[in-house]
Amino acid sequence: MYRIDDEQRRLRLGRRHLLAPAARASSVVAVADAVVALHATDAATVFLSACARLTTPDIGAVERALYEDVSLVRLLAMRNTLFTMSRAVAASVDASHARRVAAKERQRLLKHLREDGNGLDERWLAAVEQQTIAVLSLRGRATGSELSAAVPALRTKITVFPGTRQETVQGVASRVIRVLAAEGRIRRDRPRGTWTSSQFRWTASEPLPPSDPARARVEVARRWLQSYGPATEKDLAWWTGWGVRETREALAAIAPEEVLLDSGAAGWVIPGDLAAEPPSEPWAALLPGLDPSAMGWADRTFQLPSNHRAALFDRAGNIGPTVWFNGGIVGGWAQRADGELVWRLLSDVGGEASELVASEASRMSAWMGDARITPRFRTPLERELTA
Q1: Are 140 and 203 in contact (CB under 8 A)?
Q2: Can you give the residue ranges of every domain in the chain?
Q3: What is the CA radius of gyration of the chain?
Q4: pLDDT tens digit string along 275-298?
Q5: Closest listed residue to residue 303, CA positions, set 230, 211, 361
Q6: Which fold has domain 111-116+123-204?
Q7: What's the pLDDT at 117?
């Protein structure tokens, strides 16, 4: 069996994920396509991940892609997580993931409405949704608070998980907005405040046209394997959130080539992707929490020493801000209240690597300007660096 060792995997990552300086892209869409999709749970992550891979980092370019030409689309998709991707990728992700997620979100909301016992049902929800979209169509955009002020029904309170230890009273506004967004009937517009803010305005939108889910899964798997291969079946199943049957069917349709990994596991690459990756110039990167290059595999041992996990992950398994050198995670970084970027190397990588990290931190500080970043998921090392 053809072997692809860990060094080759790190070389592939540097080029295919546009992290090596010579591989950086000139457009935000190219960045998103290179990693299939950018994590978007934390508003700042999209900007940090994109600018780390742009030849000329540009906050304005990311904002234009998100809010003006809408060449980047946000979808609640893989593993019930919010991602941002190009429109070409979004068509496949919508059919393979997002529509199923949206259906579950609607079912969950209707279940809460029925359990509340006040006669709220599908007809009530449909009327509230119509009123909400009508307000957005009239105003153009509005925050959740503004929508609640304009649509009285959004101020309705319901009791969720009645009779259990989790019983609580909640407003329906955020849940209705979440369902409408998951279905593509509304989308996030520019936030209140800067690009780091999560207080989004909303605007009316049109759902993506439907397509065949099975074919869409094959396309998503093909794109993922091109960007993240060699990788295992387990890696693909973890990243997508698919079951074993769906994962194997998608792989079989691609007819990938099997390779041996240093871990001893069998990995897969797309057909014809066995050529050795040539050496690249040394590089360093400072990537945000939940960056796709750190979240692309279930087994990250080829890039992440096991003794680094405790410092770089929170209790829920979310990875925080990381420092990279030549395709491996070698430390973590943070931003202090005064704007200073600070980092700690957890691996002994030598003087050249330290200089490259400092240079990348300087580049990052220059394009970030006065922005202040506090990750949504805080890790032990990030907290320590900012203490």
Answers
A1: yes
A2: 111-116+123-204, 284-386
A3: 22
A4: 999 999 999 999 999 999 999 999
A5: 230
A6: Arc Repressor Mutant, subunit A (1.10.10)
A7: 80
